[in-house]
Amino acid sequence: MLAENKPNTLLLGYPVASMDGPQNTFFTQLLTGKANPTAADIKVLDAFGAIDANAPPAFLFATVKDRLTPYGVRAIVNAYTKTGVDDELHLFQFGPIVWAGRECKRQ
Q1: pTM (2 decimals)?
Q2: What DSSP string describes 5-62?
Q3: For residue 12, which of 57, 50, 52 has the smallest C-alpha distance?
Q4: In angstroms, how far is the first alpha carbon of the chain from the final one?
Q5: What is the spatial distance between Cα 45 and Cα 95, in angstroms, rounded to a whole number?
Q6: Cα 35-19-34 angle, rounded to 5 deg
Q7: Cα–Cα dist 35/70, whole Å
Q8: Fewer Cβ close by (within 10 Å): the C or N end of the chain?
């Protein structure tokens, strides 16, 4: 972990593992406080650098039809699996995607 003190567990809802890419421009600007963050600034925001054998266990959740975070969910679960740290993933088949302001409806 990047910090000496860490939480007992992480609760990650609709996690974004990487801030790289044009779809995340607003968030990288917001989180770095820079209008034009560098590649190094963006790399610090990636979750992968913090997932190692010392990472706290994680509980992840998302909606199956969410198009914004499926890569992040899979990547974080894979990173946890490689480290051997406990994680649990819940995928909801239907339901609102609160952060995206829309709802996945039954087909």
Answers
A1: 0.66
A2: S--S-EEEES------SGGGHHHHHHHHT-SS--HHHHHHT-GGGG-STTSPPEEEEE
A3: 57
A4: 42
A5: 28
A6: 15
A7: 27
A8: C
Burial status of residue 53 (CB atoms within 10 A of its CB: 0-12, 13-18, 19 or more): exposed
Q: Which two tokens stand for residue 44?
A: 């610090």
Which is nearest to 66 in space by CA: 90, 89, 100, 24?
A: 100
**pLDDT digits 0-9 by tens, 65-89:** 776 666 678 888 888 999 999 999 9
Residues 90-104 have pLDDT tens digits of: 988 876 665 555 554
Here the tokens at position 98 are 């609160």
Give how far Cα 73 sits from Cα of 18, 41, 80, 90, 91, Å.
11, 22, 11, 10, 10
Retrieve residue 8's tokens: 């007992």
